[in-house]
C-alpha cells in the first residue's frame, strides 16, 4: 500500500502537533512536513511535493485564498483541505471556488479532518458537517447574509471586510483592478456605505467577521 503524504499548514505548533498525532494513527498516512507560514510553505513547495495539503486560511503573512490559487496554478492536481476557524457560507464558497477540495472547521470533531483527507485522497470533495447546509441551501445562488448583493459582490464584500486592498481583492478573486473597484462602488451604493470602515462595521453586525 502506497503512503499518503500529508502536509499541515497552520501557524500554531500545538494545533499541528495534535493533528499530526491524530492523522498518523491512520495506516499508510504520513505527515511529511509541518509549515507555520506562507513564506515557509512557498519555500517548501519549491523542492517538495505531497498528496494532500491541509491549509489554514488565516496565516500571519499571507491570505489563504491567494495561496490556494497560487498553489493550484503550479500544481493543479494537488488536493487541498481547508481547515479554518471560519464557518460562514462566504468562506466556504470562496475556498471551493478557489480550488479547495475539502473544507473543515476547527470547531468540528477531530475525525472530520480524517474523513476529509480520506475523501479528497479518493478524488472526492468533502464539506464538514457544520457547513454542508450551505451547499444544500444553494450556496452558489445567493447569500443569506448579504441578500442585497450579487454572488461576486458578496465575495468582494467579505474580502474588503477582512482588510484586503482592492488590488488584493482583484488578485484573490481573479479579476482586474478596474472590475474590483466597480464591484466596491456597487456595494457602497446598494448598502449605503461611504467607507471600508463602515463596510467592516456592517460585516461585524451581520456576523461575517469577528469583532476586533
Automatic annotation (TrEMBL):
Q: Where is the signal peptide?
A: none
InterPro entries linked to this entry: CheY-like_superfamily, NreC/VraR/RcsB-like_REC, Sig_transdc_resp-reg_C-effctor, Sig_transdc_resp-reg_receiver, Tscrpt_reg_LuxR_C, WalR-like
Indicate the segments forming the HTH luxR-type domain, all copies: 142-207
Lineage, top-rank taxon, reads Bacteria
- Alphabetized Pfam families for the sequence: GerE, Response_reg
Q: Which residues carry this modification: 4-aspartylphosphate?
A: 56
UniProt entry keywords in alphabetical sequence = DNA-binding, Phosphoprotein
Residues forming the Response regulatory domain are 5-121
Q: List the PANTHER family hit by this protein, alphabetically.
A: TWO-COMPONENT RESPONSE REGULATOR
UniProt protein name: Response regulator transcription factor
Amino acid at each position: 500500500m502506497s503512503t499518503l503524504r500529508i502536509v499541515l499548514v497552520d501557524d500554531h505548533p500545538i494545533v499541528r502537533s495534535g493533528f499530526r498525532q491524530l492523522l498518523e494513527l491512520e495506516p499508510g498516512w504520513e505527515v511529511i512536513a509541518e509549515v507555520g507560514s506562507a513564506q515557509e510553505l512557498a519555500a517548501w513547495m519549491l523542492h517538495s511535493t505531497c498528496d494532500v495539503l491541509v491549509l489554514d486560511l488565516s496565516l500571519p503573512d499571507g491570505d489563504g485564498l491567494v495561496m490556494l490559487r497560487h498553489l493550484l496554478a503550479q500544481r493543479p492536481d494537488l488536493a487541498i483541505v481547508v481547515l479554518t476557524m471560519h464557518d460562514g457560507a462566504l468562506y466556504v464558497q470562496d475556498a471551493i471556488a478557489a480550488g479547495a477540495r475539502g473544507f473543515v472547521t476547527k470547531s468540528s470533531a477531530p475525525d472530520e479532518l480524517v474523513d476529509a483527507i480520506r475523501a479528497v485522497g479518493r478524488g472526492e470533495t468533502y464539506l464538514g458537517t457544520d457547513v454542508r447546509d450551505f451547499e444544500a441551501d444553494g450556496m452558489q445562488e445567493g447569500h443569506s447574509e448579504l441578500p442585497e448583493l450579487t454572488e461576486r459582490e458578496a465575495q468582494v464584500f467579505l474580502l474588503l471586510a477582512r482588510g484586503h486592498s482592492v488590488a488584493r481583492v482583484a488578485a484573490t478573486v481573479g479579476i482586474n483592478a478596474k472590475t474590483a473597484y466597480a464591484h466596491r462602488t456597487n456595494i457602497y451604493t446598494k448598502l449605503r456605505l461611504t467607507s471600508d470602515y463602515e463596510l467592516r462595521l456592517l460585516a461585524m453586525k451581520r456576523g461575517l467577521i469577528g469583532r476586533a
